[in-house]
Amino acid sequence: MNKTVIKTMEMLKLFIDRERLTLQEMVELLQMPKTSVYRMAQSLVELGFLQKTNDYYQLGLAFLSFGMLVAERLDLRRIALPIMKRLKEETKEAVNLVIRDGDEAIYNEKVDTSEPVRVYTKVGQRAPLYAGACPIAIKLRI
């Protein structure tokens, strides 16, 4: 495998759990030389995968385009959405489409309830398989 690609992806993965990071925070988390982290970050800024605001880096708008492409091209969502809407109407509850990714569940689509008390989820959110009804159902293969 290409080490540069792996290190770059490791840098981008830092932003899964963090909205923004300083250069020094990335250096500490990646345990890489500051000059290497800086060069990688600058390349990602130039390509639109990161944005730099003041002293902070955050994901760039290029990810929005990729995210929308993945969402549009995933047939499971297209097939499930009408069923999810019907289920929401019948139960008056929120309906989530969750898929397994290793030891985690990813919320892939949702139809919110109009009820005042509800659980907040967002598309793209990851959760361990022990946290929440949907991930537990996946883990138990219900």
From TrEMBL:
Domain HTH iclR-type: 2-61
UniProt KW RNA-binding keyword: no
Domain IclR-ED: start-end pairs: 62-142
Pfam families: HTH_IclR, IclR_C
Entries under PROSITE patterns matching the protein: HTH_ICLR (PS51077), ICLR_ED (PS51078)
GO molecular function: DNA binding; DNA-binding transcription factor activity
Name of this chain's protein: Transcriptional regulator, IclR family
